[in-house]
Amino acid sequence: MSKILNETIEYINKRIDGFKPELGIILGTGLGGLVNEIEVAHQLMYSNIPNFPISTLEFHSGKLIFGKLGGKRIVAMQGRLHYYEGYSMQQITFPVKVMKALGIQHLFVSNAAGSLNPAFKKGSLMIINDHINLQHDNPLRGINDESGPRFPDMSEPYSKSLIKMAVEIAAQEQISCHEGVYVAVVGPSLETKSEYNYLRIIGGDAVGMSTVPEVIVANYLSLPVFAISVLTDEGFPDVLKPVSIEEIIEVANRAEPSMTKILSALIQKL
Fold it and tell me: What is the C-alpha to C-alpha distance for residues 197 and 239, in angstroms, rounded to an integer?
C-alpha cells in the first residue's frame, strides 16, 4: 500500500469504529436518494479526508457514508468525481482504491446518461454490459503500483452474474430496464448531432462523462462490478432538442426510486 493510500485508510479507520464494508457504491448525478435507504453508521466529508479529492459540483454532496443496506455493510460515495472537473484519472479513481483497501468485495456504480439507442427512452434504466472509453486517458497509465496486473484483462468488465440477477429483479418489479454499451466522453459540453450519430455508429447505447475510469481500476483490483445508468435525455440526431443540467437532474430524480429498488434488491441477494 502506498504511503498516501495508507495515510487515508488510517484516518478513515480511526473514525469508523472498526466498521468493515463488504460493498462499495458510487452514486451519480441526481441519484443520491439511495442514501435514504442506508442505515447510516458514519459519515465523513471528502474535504476532511486526507488526500481525498473534493467534488466541485454543487449537486454532488461529497460524503463517504458507512452503514447497512440490504443487510450488507456498505460504503457509499455520495458525490463522484469527473475528469472534466480538472482532476487526473488517478485522482478520480483514488476512492476506488480506498474502498478496496477498506475491504469491499464488489463495486456498484450508478450514473446519469444520455440515450443513443432509439429503443431506450428517457426516464428508463440501462444496465451496463460493456463500455467504450473515449476519454483519451487511462487511470492505469504510469508506473504500475503492483496492486494489480500491468495489463488487466477487460473481457468481462461488468459481472455477468450480477447483470443476470438485476435483469430478473427489474422484470419482477416491472421496471423498464435495458442492457447496453456505455460510451464515456470527456465533457462537460454535451454532444452535437454529428457526435451523437458517431457514438451510435461505433456501438454505443448511452453516453456519459464518468464510470469507465472507476470500472477500469475496479477490474485492475479484481473487484466484480455492477453499473447502471438512468437515461435522462435522448441523443437522437433526427429529433435532437436542447437540454439543460436542471432537466437532466429532474429526470434522474424521478427515475431514481426504480434504480434504488434494483440496487437494494441486488445487494440483498448477494
Answer: 12
C-beta separation of 227 from 109 below 8 A:
yes
How many CB atoms sit inside 10 A of residue 228's CB? 27
Residue 125 φ then ψ, to 5°:
-110, 155
| Distance separating alpha carbons of residues 143 and 134, to the nearest angstrom | 22
Residue 1's CB is within 10 A of a number of other CB atoms, namely 12
CA distance 45 to 9: 14
Sign, CA dihedral 10-97-255-246, equals positive
User: Grid coordinates standing for 157?
Assistant: 468488465
Any idea which residue has 429532474 for its cell?
250
Q: Are 59 and 30 in contact (CB under 8 A)?
A: yes
Cell of 3: 504511503
The pLDDT tens digits for 96-151 are 999 999 999 999 999 999 999 999 999 999 999 999 999 999 999 999 988 999 99
Residue 147: give the domain boundaries: 3-269
CA distance linking residue 56 with residue 80, whole number of Å: 10
233, 114 Cβ separation under 8 angstroms:
yes
Q: For the chain, what is the domain count?
A: 1
d(CA 193, CA 17): 52
**CA–CA–CA angle 218, 68, 169 (5° rounding):** 70
Neighbour count for residue 187 (Cβ, 10 Å): 16
pTM here is: 0.95
Task: Choose among 79, 77, 76: nearest CA to 61.
Answer: 79
Q: Kindly report the CATH number assigned to the domain that includes residue 158.
A: 3.40.50.1580
Show the beta-strand stretches assigned E in the chain: 23-27, 39-45, 63-69, 72-78, 106-115, 125-133, 177-184, 206-208, 225-234
